[in-house]
Write a structure and sequence with these properties.
The chain is α+β, with helices and mostly antiparallel strands and 264 residues long. Helices cover 53% and strands 22% of the residues. It has a domain of 89 residues. The strands form two sheets. It has a four-stranded antiparallel sheet, with no helix packed on it. The protein has a two-stranded antiparallel sheet with strand order 1-2.
Length: 264
């Protein structure tokens, strides 16, 4: 029994230590990498908006323009399709960025002071200053041609008495042109991703326009049904009121006829 208790105790301690280490790893991952230890639940979707502005005496009063505007503003499918169109536009920009020029520039300033151990080094404390300046330009063209050029300049100065040229300049300039002959040769091979992205964008826009058209058709149809229902109610009410007036006239005429007979 003592052996079993000891084994259970060891298992519990190991589980507790593993959970603590997991919590520490989660906190470390969240602090350094920005990855949350617990993913928060998604935010709830907002409720219908804009209807309170059209409520008069407890009734919803809408024109056709108001109905269309509210339907567009509160339809989730419209937002999803709009996000799809935006994603397709960004994809076109990403694919076109392959042919954007890239310019770079850098400057490095480095000073080194060294305690010398020999008079042949030219100074008791050797002070060296190196300044490096670089410029670069690169671009890929639709034909597959890649052009790169770099310019660099190194300025070096020292307090050494043995330096014959101080400061010392070292300048270089280079360029490189690369043209594929088989793979990625020609305009179509390099711009095919752009063509595909543009086609996907047109499809997304067509789907968005179709969704808008369906919503407009549905709103107009429902609005027309509501107008017909209201018109039918008004006609029925008019017929009922007309029947009531005719009945009241008939009742009055019948009463006067009865009174006239009794007077005779």
């Amino acid at each position: 029994m003592s052996y079993v208790r000891a084994l259970v105790l060891v298992v519990l301690i190991s589980l507790a230590s593993s959970s603590a280490s997991f919590g520490q790893q989660s906190d470390l991952r969240e602090r350094i990498l920005g990855i949350p230890a617990r993913i928060p639940p998604p935010a709830p979707l907002p409720g219908p908006q804009g209807f309170q502005e059209h409520i008069v005496d407890g009734q919803l009063v809408l024109t056709l323009d108001d109905a269309i505007r509210l339907a567009m503003a509160n339809n989730i499918d419209i937002r999803v399709d709009q996000a799809t169109v935006d994603f397709a536009k960004n994809n076109v920009y990403r694919q076109s960025a392959l042919f954007d020029p890239l310019a770079s520039a850098s400057f490095v300033d480095q000073r080194v002071k060294t305690q010398t151990s020999s008079q042949l080094q030219g100074a008791a404390v050797l002070n060296t200053l190196n300044q490096t300046t670089q410029f670069g330009y690169a671009q890929t063209f639709p034909t597959g041609t890649n052009f790169q050029t770099f310019f660099g300049n190194l300025k070096s100065s020292t307090n050494s008495g043995f330096a014959t040229l101080n400061p010392f300049y070292n300048t270089s300039w280079s360029f490189q042109v690369t043209q594929p002959l088989l793979k990625n040769f020609g305009v179509f091979a390099n711009k095919a991703p752009i063509y595909i992205a543009q086609r996907n964008l047109r499809q997304s826009q067509a789907a968005f326009e179709g969704e808008v058209s369906d919503i407009l058709l549905s709103v107009i149809s429902q609005y027309s049904k509501a107008l017909r229902y209201k018109s039918n109610r008004m006609k029925k009410r008019s017929r009922v009121m007309s029947a009531i007036r005719k009945h009241s006239v008939w009742v009055r005429s019948l009463r006067w006829t009865f009174i006239a007979r009794n007077l005779k």
